[in-house]
Amino acid sequence: MNLIASYFRFEERNTNWRAEVTGGLTTFMTMAYIVAVNPGILSEAMGQSLFGELLFATCVSAAFGTLLMALLANYPFALAPGMGLNAFFTYTIVLGMGVDWRIALAVVLASGILFLLLTFLRVREAIITAVPEPLKRATAAGIGLFIAFIGLKNAGVIVDDPATLVSLGDVRSWPVGLTLAGMLAMGVMLARGMRGSILLGVAGVAFLAMVFGVTPWPAGVASMPTWPSTLFGEAVVNLPLVLDSAMLHLVFAFLFVDLFDTMGTLVGLSERSGFLDRQGRLPRANRALLADSVGTVFGSVMGSATVTTYIESATGISSGARTGFASLVVALLFLGTLFLTPLVESIPVFATAPALIVTGVLMMASAARVNWSDASEAVPVFLTLISIPLTFSIADGLAVGFVAYPVIKRLSGRGGEVHPLVDVLALVFIARYVFMT
């Protein structure tokens, strides 16, 4: 046990077994929805008969990527097939463009291989290092607003409205009432300094939902997993077809979105947990990026969409997780889910909503360290912070900040504060949105 604590540097990170296990459990519970949601989305493209195989691919690729993050980078960040990217796979590429799902998997594999190349060349690490300090703080706070918004949406507290875009949901409904009760309970427990308050809140809401008949009790506890015999290796077999010019732009679309989505998530989580050094750099950033690159390659071979770092990791960090041991816990839980799927699926999505909302509150602390009296920083920061939740995309929110920051700095006579790579990225973002179709 001491050897494990030494490997994950418990003493150096000022943590302990209880905090790491609790953090891992909390992170897993807030992202366990992916076990059912990812197969559900992908099966629309591949066929409902492959749901069981897709569930296996989802759990195994999430476990593999998260395990790499734990052992290589020693950060409490969890990985899984990315939401948004799986929707892009299904609704845009397969159903929208009519691309065969086997070739679409090869597109994901090709983007993963390019990720690996950029990681080995340290291009991705250089981009993360070049992010200005104010934008790092804005990204953390923006992700806080984003995941709080996701929590409010999942619980039905915020609903879509054709006239006003969004509006208040039915506060008399059980999901909304239990979400608000869980959020208040977590707030009280956090204020009193109780350990594991976020995890207790999620478990409490799920239990009450079952007691009051809002959601059914688990139909069972265990089930046997289904090996993805149809999916396994299809990405490799069809990889040569991706070299067609008509497919290459799809590879770069996956590459672009995941590159900046992962960058924003890593920067935001690192800012929130204090992992950035005095120069604002993330130690072992290349190892963290290697984990999601290899995870994407592995996941595509298994039959799943792009694997990426999850912003829900912030809930585990808020619960005290500070090392890769928390990620190891998450990885083991994903593997265990292969046999406990009925139990995990019984946790309603609104039970995790209070955890996302409260974590969003905690992540907003980064905004307090922004120099709001300096307009050359305040404007790009605010645009980044507000654009992430309103565009429902970390990548798009970052794009707004990356364009605004160098433009305002240079036109105000402070171009010396702008890293040349930021100028390059601003031009890349502008080109993408001007010429994208």
Please give the structural blueprint.
Layout: H1 2-7, H2 17-31, H3 34-46, H4 51-73, E1 79-81, H5 85-94, H6 101-120, H7 123-130, H8 133-155, E2 158-161, E3 165-168, H9 174-191, H10 197-211, H11 234-237, H12 245-273, H13 285-302, E4 307-309, H14 313-318, H15 324-337, H16 341-345, H17 349-363, H18 375-391, H19 394-411, H20 420-435
Antiparallel strand pairs: 1-4, 2-3
Helix pairs in contact: 2-15, 2-17, 3-4, 3-5, 4-13, 4-15, 6-12, 6-13, 8-12, 8-17, 8-18, 8-19, 9-10, 9-17, 10-17, 12-19, 18-19, 19-20
**What is the N-to-C succession of helices and strands?**
HHHHEHHHHEEHHHHHEHHHHHHH
Mean pLDDT: 87
Overall geometry: globular
Radius of gyration: 21 Å
Enumerate the spans where pLDDT stays under 50 for 5 or more consecutive residues.
Answer: none
Strands across the major sheet, in which order?
Answer: 1-4
Distance between the ends: 54 Å
Overall tally of structural domains: 2
Extended strand count:
4
Classification by helices and strands: mainly alpha
Q: Helical residue percent?
A: 55-70%
- How many helices? 20
- Strand content is under 5%
Q: What summary fits the major beta sheet?
A: 2 strands, antiparallel
